[in-house]
Amino acid sequence: MREDTDPDLKRSGQLPLVLQRISGGVLSLTLNRPEKLNSLDAAMVEALHVALDMHGDHPDVRAIVLSGAGKKAFVAGADIAELRERRRDQALRGINSELFDRVASIPVPTIAAIQGYALGGGCELAIACDLRVAGTSAKIGQPETGLGIMAAAGATYRLPLLVGLGMAREILFTGRTVGAEEALRIGLVNRVVDDDQVRPEAEKIAKRIARNDSLAVRMTKAALAAKFNNNGSAQILECVAQAVLFESPEKFRRMDEFLERKRGK
Question: Which residues touch 166 (CB under 8 Å, ≥6 apart)?
Answer without folding.
Answer: none
